[in-house]
UniProtKB/TrEMBL annotation:
Keywords: Isomerase, Rotamase. It comes from Vibrio maritimus. The lineage of its organism: Bacteria, Pseudomonadati, Pseudomonadota, Gammaproteobacteria, Vibrionales. Its EC number is 5.2.1.8. It catalyses: [protein]-peptidylproline (omega=180) = [protein]-peptidylproline (omega=0). The keyword Isomerase applies. Pfam families: Pro_isomerase. This is Peptidyl-prolyl cis-trans isomerase.
């Protein structure tokens, strides 16, 4: 289990090592390295998702490890409370940024091994703190340094705790 201590409260996440081993190990690696500490939730869309894990408070993007293989074709769905990796238009481009689904977002699920059909790889779920996730989703947002949907009041990941 991973605990993300945010400025809004704690979010507990259970990884799915069995069904999404590459993504889970990648997320765990960033957690172990302390990468996420001091990053912000930089994209928040109520009724959709909250995204974080890549930008500092001044919107600088942190350097990451190489992208990983997309595991969205392994059967896990983008349902409420699941955590998945963000990526560019290229299917296998996920690095550190993740999002937590605020609703069932089946349009993000894998449908085909094409650029449009790959989907977004779910690798775990929120087991406690979904109220915190929903509160983050309600944050007032605007544009900051060219990025849209950025919370006007910074929402930071202050600490990451790994519980065996």
């Amino acid at each position: 289990m991973i605990i993300l201590t945010t400025t809004y409260g704690d979010i507990e996440i259970e990884l799915n090592m069995e069904r999404a081993p590459v993504s889970s190990k990648n997320f765990l690696r960033y957690c172990e390295e302390g990468f996420y500490e001091g990053t912000i939730f930089h994209r928040v869309i109520d009724g959709f998702m909250i995204q974080g894990g890549g930008h500092t408070e001044d919107m600088a993007e942190k350097d990451t490890h190489a992208p990983i293989a997309n595991e969205a074709n392994r059967g896990l769905k983008n349902t409420t409370g699941t955590i998945a990796f963000a990526r560019t238009d290229a299917p296998h481009s996920a690095t550190a940024q993740f999002f937590i689904n605020l609703e069932d977002n089946d349009f993000l699920d894998h449908t085909a091994k094409t650029n449009n059909g790959w989907g977004y790889a779910v690798f775990g779920k929120v087991t406690s703190g979904m109220d915190i996730v929903k509160n983050i989703g309600k944050a007032m947002t605007g544009i900051k340094k060219g990025h849209e949907d950025v919370p006007l009041d910074t929402i930071k990941i202050e600490k990451v705790t790994i519980v065996d």
